[in-house]
Amino acid sequence: MSDSSAERTVERTLGHLRTIDAPEPHEQDEPLTLEDLYRRHRMQLIRLAVLLVDDAATAEDVVQDSFAGLYRKWAELRDSSAALGYLRAAVVNRARSVLRRRKTARDYVPPHGVNARSAESVAMLSSEHQAVVDALSTLPHRQREVLVLRYYGGLSEAEISDATGISKGTVKSTASRALESLHRAMQQ
Known about the structure:
One of its GO terms (molecular function) is sigma factor activity. Belongs to the sigma-70 factor family. ECF subfamily. Keywords: DNA-binding, Sigma factor, Transcription, Transcription regulation. This is SigE family RNA polymerase sigma factor. It contains nine helices and no strands. It is mainly alpha-helical. The protein has one domain: Butyryl-CoA Dehydrogenase, subunit A, domain 3 (Up-down Bundle). The chain is globular and about 50 Å long. The termini are close together. The mean pLDDT is about 80.
């Protein structure tokens, strides 16, 4: 499997999950209230967090903390359309914090055997897709973040840069290295 074929496989798998989470056509206009954001994007953000931290309960906490942080800052928000970007960045940052705490609390080893996906999402994935999601859990957290945000989140390099706080060039090189690592992991 070449790197471009690994990229297509990752894009197909995470794109499939993104399609499952796509908002209804009537919900695609920008939410006006925090309640709208919560109702429309909570599950998508939880799935994003699950892909980053490999644990559903922790992912829910990460998203809840992100919404609580936005609630505290809501009055200071100049542009409500930027709220979803703020939430995405908050989820990524809180997921990073979780991973750092895990590493310092115990000599962190990624939980390869954990299957934090819902029964519905597992049933909807083919064996190839399951192999990709399993291989994602073997990647270092930054590489996993970049691939998840790119192919599941559908974000551009600039948006990934904003969400993760790394430069666009680093996003591009990290994605390339991640795809190479994923390719190797899937061949084993």
